[in-house]
Design a protein that fits this description.
The chain has about 475 residues and is an all-alpha fold. Helix content is about 70%, strand content about 0%. The protein has helices at about 5, 10-20, 25-50, 50-55, 60-70, 75-85, 90-105, 105-110, 115-130, 130-140, 150-175, 185-205, 225-235, 260, 265-285, 290-295, 300-305, 310-330, 335-355, 360-375, 380-385, 390-405, 410-425, 435-470, 470-480. α10 (about 130-140) crosses α11, α10 (about 130-140) runs antiparallel to α22 (about 390-405) and α18 packs across α20 (about 360-375). The chain starts with a helix and ends with a helix.
């Protein structure tokens, strides 16, 4: 076999080595990165407009926190439902419908919507964005062979952390501009969403490895991909051998009943860990700008910049942990230790940072928020680990179901923080008036209580993840007891 035949098609390595870039595959990957950027910019905007929106609409902290939580009311239901639908419907069309929906739902607030309109549009937007990550991953996997999906998957995942990084400074400038104001932040995102949808209509296609593709992709040798994988794995049974990494046979797994997957200890551990990650995201997108303004005393312009720090750190952490996981698996380390244990360790560190946060102020508080919340951005590692336990046809449904259940953490965070602020006696100042020192202290008291709670939670679920996120064992048991040909 020649060196050329050993490098699979549709990969960046093949494109660089032979000068034959598969433009469509990488164009689609780039479009999905932008898709995820818009997705998380839509989530982050509610936190950036917190001060002016609360004053203009006459909302208390608890009421605004409830609206922030409302984003996740239908998030889980939609994620699960669309995840199962993706097993039958081409994901290119699902992505197009989501993109258009996101854009349209931004405009009511631009045109003068009040608190009720904001509540309804956030609920509907959450439903439209719930399936975004699992469907994006499922679609990009259709353009790359199993062993070459790591880089494009990481790129799509990093797109989710780039959303606030790219959008926050722009949106902060729009909000602070007297000629535009906070309502135009929603309008700007709506326009960007429509432009993306128009581009996707022309470039979005199903890949050769898609589960809905009618053709069977071939390797460079001319053999079918499945035959090549079976030869490399040394088995056609579709069942991992004892002691080996599931990474060697993941694409040979047979179908198992979904309910059996959802009942595994690994799935439960992933849900609990994911809920902690979504809590951190919910805090960042709803209350972080308010925390930076009142407790750290930053200007609106600086808030837009500093708000990006956790997302920047999260992007770096995701790439570092992802690369470390890939390196370990190439050395023969099982997926449990190369992926599950690394993810659990990041959550332990994240929890420790939140536990320290109530004792810090100024720059130290910014650093603790950046590291603690940034490490929680590694959530995509949880569905990635779980995906190793099931066959390709079931991965979208399983990843979407996990995301749906885990998103409950995003429901809890904004309302929980707002309630604790209300209990501490915090009252928002009138429009154009800064919080007094007393109100800032009460706001900090409420937020610090929430930091203690989430810090303890993340430490506990981090330890659980190290112990139970074991796709090697989970896949072996599922295949042995419940596999069938479907």
């Amino acid at each position: 076999m020649t060196t050329q035949s050993q490098i699979p098609p549709h990969t960046l390595r093949a494109a660089v080595k032979y000068g034959k870039m598969n433009r469509r595959a990488w164009l689609v990957t780039g479009a999905l990165v932008v898709f995820q950027i818009i997705n998380f910019a839509d989530k982050a905007v509610i936190g950036l407009v917190a001060d002016p929106a609360m004053r203009d609409l006459g909302l208390t902290a608890g009421e605004f926190g409830f609206i922030g939580s409302a984003f996740f009311f239908l998030f889980a239901v939609a994620a699960i439902a669309v995840g199962f639908l993706a097993g039958k419907v081409p994901t290119r069309w699902i992505l197009l419908v989501m993109g258009i929906s996101w854009a349209v739902l931004q405009f009511p607030m631009l045109f003068g919507g009040g608190a009720a309109v904001l509540l309804v549009t956030r609920i509907l937007l959450g439903a439209a964005e719930g399936p975004a990550t699992p469907i994006s991953l499922q679609h990009v996997h259709g353009w790359f062979s199993a062993k070459e999906r790591g880089l494009p998957s990481s790129m799509v995942a990093v797109g989710s952390t780039l959303g606030p990084i790219v959008a926050a400074p722009v949106l902060a400038w729009i909000i602070a501009n007297p000629a535009l104001g906070w309502r135009w932040a929603f309008g700007f995102l709506g326009i960007v969403g429509l432009l993306w949808s128009l581009c996707w209509l022309f470039i979005g296609r199903e890949g050769p490895y898609s589960h809905t593709s009618r053709s069977t992709p071939e390797s460079e040798t001319g053999d079918s991909v499945e035959e090549t994988q079976q030869e490399e794995a040394g088995t056609t049974a579709g069942r991992p051998r004892n002691g080996e990494s599931i990474a060697d046979t993941a694409d040979l797994l047979k179908i198992v009943p979904i309910r059996r997957v959802l009942g595994t200890r690994m799935f439960v551990a992933a849900v609990l860990a994911g809920a902690g990650c979504f809590w951190a995201q919910g805090f960042l997108t709803t209350w972080s700008p308010k925390y930076l303004a009142s407790v750290v005393s930053l200007s609106p312009e600086m808030i837009g910049l500093v708000s990006t720090f956790p997302w920047v750190f999260g992007a770096v952490a995701l790439l570092v942990v992802g690369y470390g996981s890939r390196f370990l698996m190439r050395k023969g380390v099982t997926v449990r230790w190369a992926l599950g244990a690394l993810f659990g360790a990041t959550l332990l560190c994240s929890g420790a940072c939140f536990l320290l946060l109530p004792h810090l102020g100024g720059v130290a508080a910014v650093v603790a928020v950046t590291v603690g919340a940034g490490l929680a951005m590694t959530y995509p590692l949880a569905p990635t680990a779980l995906a190793f336990s099931v066959c390709s046809k079931q991965r979208a449904a399983v990843m979407a179901t996990l995301t749906g259940f885990a998103s409950m953490g995003g429901v809890v965070a904004p309302a929980m923080v707002g309630m604790l602020m209300d209990n501490a006696g915090y009252l928002p100042a009138a429009k154009g008036v800064a919080d007094t020192a007393e109100m800032a202290a009460r706001l900090a008291e409420g937020m610090n209580s929430s930091f203690w709670m989430i810090g303890i939670y993340l430490v506990v679920v981090g330890a659980i993840s190290i112990l139970l996120l074991n796709p090697d064992r989970t896949a072996a048991r599922l295949q042995e007891r419940f596999a069938y040909n479907g």
